[in-house]
Specification:
Number of strands: 4
Structural class: alpha+beta
Strand order of the largest sheet: 2-3-1-4
CATH architecture of the domain at 31-108: 2-Layer Sandwich
Radius of gyration: 15 Å
Organism: Streptomyces minutiscleroticus
Pfam family, one: ABM
Shape: globular
Number of helices: 3
CATH class of the domain at 31-108: Alpha Beta
Domain ABM: 19-105
InterPro entries: ABM_dom, Dimeric_a/b-barrel, Jasmonate_Hydroxylase-like
Strand content: 25-35%
Largest sheet: 4 strands, antiparallel
CATH topology of the domain at 31-108: Alpha-Beta Plaits
Protein name: ABM domain-containing protein
Helix content: 25-40%
Order of helices and strands: EHEEHHE
Length: 120
């Protein structure tokens, strides 16, 4: 995998706890059905939510996806959950994009970072 040398790839920085992580784990249906466009739009929308700290996301070749959104407090999570565009995308996801998914919400009580010397 060539991604190991790509310095533009990096996890979300550690933040001062406490904060919250929303872990969305999913298995996609075959085909796009407008998923990529909606996913990009949702990323734009969530970045506008006061209290949103960042997001990490990965998908295995077999189709398992994990996205972790980090939020300052439960109120920020609720603002995102209540966003009308996000709610419409959730409905389309259940109708077209996901075989199944789970959502876990966790309070982060400890956070730290390692970065190899010379990496930017």
């Amino acid at each position: 995998m060539g991604g190991m040398s790509d310095l533009s790839v990096a996890p979300v920085a550690a933040h001062e706890p406490p904060y919250y992580a929303v872990v969305f784990t999913s298995v996609r249906t075959p085909g796009d059905h407008g998923y990529d466009e909606t996913s990009e739009r949702m990323e734009e929308r969530v970045r506008e939510v006061p209290g949103f700290l960042g997001m990490d996301s990965a998908r295995t070749p077999g189709g398992l996806g994990v996205t972790v959104g980090y939020f300052r407090d439960p109120a920020a999570i609720e603002r995102w959950r209540a966003d009308l565009e996000h709610r419409a995308a959730q409905e389309r996801g259940r109708d077209h994009w996901y075989e199944e998914y789970t959502v876990h919400v966790a309070k982060v009580e400890r956070s730290y970072r390692f970065r190899r010397a010379g990496r930017q």
